[in-house]
Design goal:
With 368 residues, the chain is of the alpha+beta class. It contains 4 helices and 25 strands.
Length: 368
């Protein structure tokens, strides 16, 4: 009995120890699971975006040709035919319109008749001058008679010369009855029609030359300096995704009396066939000397002493404190000029309670 009692006394503590092992194991697992399941801190973030400190300005303009010529007849007459229409391409030497040639032909015939008469008069005067010279040499004529014959001969020669020039002018006038294109281009306006009587030099056909195109816009007086020194680009309403470099070619010296704006013409050296005359375009002016800055909420700034910083959130949920260059402070925002990259995610609320060792996750809104 005594031995049985000693064995029982030994088994009781051992059994208790065995029962305690699972309990301790379960307690250890609970602590580990609790540590693994510890929640990350929710944060609100904003995306950093840099843009010029001086905002870009845009203006609506029109695509125009650099050179547009009003072509007209060099003689007066009645329009017989108009041979082109608006929008038609023309080549050098192509007829554009013609005049009635009846009167011009009559003038040419008259000039030829005058030339023939002058030729006969000159022949007679030359013969008379020769006889007078011969008679004077033999002493059978006076010096006055010889001088008279020479004067008549000179007059006849001048008349013949005038008649020859008149024939050339009438031939030219007859050729001017056909209006010829002197350059390659496109017809942008027809200002005459058949049956109309036009004066010499009157605008008849307007032709825009193929070549450099330009954007014509009106610039307010406050931005004249930026138009001269800034960077310009043009986009078409028909192709908003394509951008063309532009360069100021001409700026009006005086402002428009009604709108108080200055007419500016920007050449488009890279314009292709997609840039058609008359298209509506948007001209954008930017200041190349301006600094690129980003606007972030004032609550995102973490400052200890003289080192303002921002908490940047990575894709894995880590946060890092990065110093930034503060350009200015506003009532609700702070303007920074560098320190964080474009597109970086920064914490905007509760930065004073963050720690770089913490894990965070981004939420769209905080609820309490």
């Amino acid at each position: 009995m005594l031995g049985h009692t000693k064995v029982s006394a030994f088994r009781k503590p051992f059994a208790a120890a065995l029962l305690l092992i699972p309990v301790l194991a379960l307690a250890g697992c609970g602590k580990k699971t609790e540590a693994e399941a510890k929640p990350t801190r929710p944060v609100l973030v904003a995306t950093v975006h840099y843009e010029p400190e001086s905002p870009q300005r845009s203006f609506v303009g029109t695509i125009r040709p650099r050179i547009e010529t009003d072509m007209g007849f060099r003689v007066t007459g009645k329009v017989a035919k108009r041979l082109v229409e608006v929008g038609q391409n023309v080549e050098i030497g192509q007829p554009l319109a013609t005049l009635d040639e009846v009167d011009l032909k009559l003038q040419a015939e008259q000039a030829v008749a005058e030339l023939n008469a002058s030729t006969g008069v000159l022949a007679n005067a030359t013969a008379a001058e020769g006889r007078a010279t011969e008679l004077r040499a033999k002493g059978w004529s006076t010096q006055a008679q010889l001088d008279q014959a020479k004067a008549t001969g000179d007059e006849a020669r001048a008349r013949l010369n005038r008649a020859e020039r008149s024939v050339e002018l009438t031939k030219n006038s007859l050729s001017y009855a056909t209006l010829i294109a002197d350059t390659r281009g496109v017809v942008t306006a027809t200002l005459i029609d058949a049956g109309q009587v036009v004066a010499a030099g009157q605008a008849a056909i307007r032709v825009a030359r193929f070549g450099e195109k330009e954007a014509v816009v009106s610039i307010p007086e406050t931005l004249v300096g930026r138009a001269k020194e800034g960077k310009a680009s043009v986009t078409l309403w028909s192709e908003p995704g394509r951008q063309y470099a532009a360069k100021l070619r001409e700026l009006a010296p005086n402002a428009d009396t009604a709108t108080r704006t200055y007419l500016a013409k920007f050449s488009l050296p890279e314009a292709d066939d997609k840039v058609s005359l008359g298209m509506t375009a948007t001209l954008t002016l930017s200041d190349p000397a301006t600094e690129r800055v980003a606007r972030v909420p004032l609550s995102a700034l973490f400052s200890q002493g003289n080192n303002p910083s921002l908490y940047v959130v990575s894709a894995s949920g880590d946060v890092a404190l990065q110093p930034v260059k503060v350009k200015s402070y506003e009532s609700n925002d702070v303007i920074i000029s560098g320190g964080v990259d474009e597109g970086a995610k920064i914490v905007t609320l509760g930065v004073q309670k963050l720690d770089p060792a913490l894990k965070v996750h981004v939420v769209s809104a905080l609820s309490f």
